[in-house]
Amino acid sequence: MIFRAKTDKALDKLEDPRQTLDYSYQKQLELLQKVRRGVADVATSRKRIELQANQLQLQADKLTQQAQKALEVGREDLAREALTRRSGLQQQLVDLQTQHAQLQGEEEKLTRASQRLQAKVDAFRTRKETIKATYSAAEAQTRINEAFSGISEEMGDVGLAIQRAEDKTAQMQARAGAIDELLASGALDDPTGIAKDDITLELEQLASTSDVENELAAMKASIGAGPGAAAPAIEGQRAAAEGALPPAPGQANTSQYQPSQPYDAQSSQPTQPQPNPGDLR
Q1: What is the pLDDT of residues 95-145, one digit of tens each?
Q2: Between the CA of residue 123 and those of 131, 181, 232, what are the distances in Å?
Q3: Do residues 134 and 82 both lie within one domain?
Q4: Residues 18 and 107 in one domain
Q5: What are all long-range contacts of 27-34, with beta carbons under 8 Å and residues at least 24 apart?
Q6: Is 81 within a domain?
Q7: pTM of the entire structure?
Q8: What is the dihedral of CA 23, 29, 30, 31, to 10 degrees?
Q9: Number of separate domains in the chain
């Protein structure tokens, strides 16, 4: 019983009413064809009996003529024999007429049945096409409604695919944000050395700002001292950058060419050589 129930359920899912209607219509056409062949067979038998009856009637008429000729020539015995044979033919004619009447009745019944069956088949064909068209329209409408509502199998698969894509996208976004936060906090090291944490970036920014401020202050000092002081100020900045002592304002750059034996302007005596800032470095 369980097997039959499951089989019936599976067949019910596989059944297409349109195919069932076409199959029923085909069977009715086959039955109508059989009825028509039956009518043709009965009509053929009836026609054969009619031919046999006609032949017997001709033989009976011939025997009647022979009996009359025999009486005319005085052969009563021959006339009696001819009439006896004609009597037998008459009995066969009666049997044939009975069979003919039966066959004719059967033929009429089959003809009426064929006509009724033809009308039924025509009506079924019209009803069949109407039902098929209605079923097709209902099926299309159902699929459209299922597609709009999202409960169809195809739309359900599409919805699941979209949901999985959204879940994976959200997971990747969360992972990327978490990695960015870990890199920014210094919990993870960047193997390329490009990414830096917030503290390193802040220290580098402060150092850069301090260098800019020092250079800006030096430029302001050189502008306030006049045009002649611009070069010594710049040289002082360069020497300071190299780790040497900065020259005083108005003092000539000792890193330039110096005479081998300098003299004092008042005593005209050679003076002691002054230390070179480069030597101090």
Answers
A1: 888 888 988 888 888 899 889 999 999 999 999 899 889 988 888 888 787
A2: 12, 79, 120
A3: yes
A4: yes
A5: 28/117, 28/120, 28/121, 28/124, 29/121, 31/117, 32/114, 32/117, 32/118, 32/121
A6: yes
A7: 0.45
A8: 110
A9: 2
Same-domain status, 104 and 15: yes
Alpha-helical runs (H) found in the chain: 2-14, 17-72, 76-149, 153-185, 198-225, 230-242, 277-280
Please, which pLDDT band fits residue 232 given cuts at 50, 70 and 90?
Answer: low
Q: Which domain holds residue 235?
A: 193-249
Residue 2 lies in a domain: no
Q: Are residues 122 and 227 in the same domain?
A: no
Q: Is 241 within the bounds of a domain?
A: yes
Cα distance between residue 125 and residue 25, in whole Å: 7
CA dihedral angle for residue 200, residue 205, residue 208, residue 213, rounded to 10 degrees: -140
Q: Do 20 and 148 share a domain, yes or no?
A: yes
The pLDDT tens digits of the residues spanning 7-48 come to 777 777 777 888 888 999 999 999 999 988 988 999 999 899
The residues facing 270 across adjacent strands are 263
270: DSSP letter: B
What whole-number distance in Å separates Cα of residue 64 and Cα of residue 192?
Answer: 135
Residues constituting the chain: 281
213 in the same domain as 144: no
Sign of the CA dihedral running 242, 246, 249, 255:
negative
